[in-house]
Design brief:
Blueprint (H helix, E strand, L loop, with lengths): L5 H7 L15 H6 L5 E5 L3 H9 L8 E5 L7
Parallel strand pairs: 1-2
Length: 75
Amino acid sequence: MERTLTPYIAKDLETKMVLLSGPRQVGKTTLSQALNMKLQYLNFDSEEHRKIILGKTWDRSLELIVFDELHKKPK
């Protein structure tokens, strides 16, 4: 199912960073993964992903990097 916001988000991502926020379990992660872009999904709750985020070693050649739960990162 395509969401109404999907084409607007995809267009905005061509020129800027997009922040998806909202209550838990409303589909923010699902929406980001459905953008049909080459992406890396990193969740700060995952120890493996947290090491990548803190070390800033994500794959910069991809079209999109999704940071989930990043608000839990100190500072």
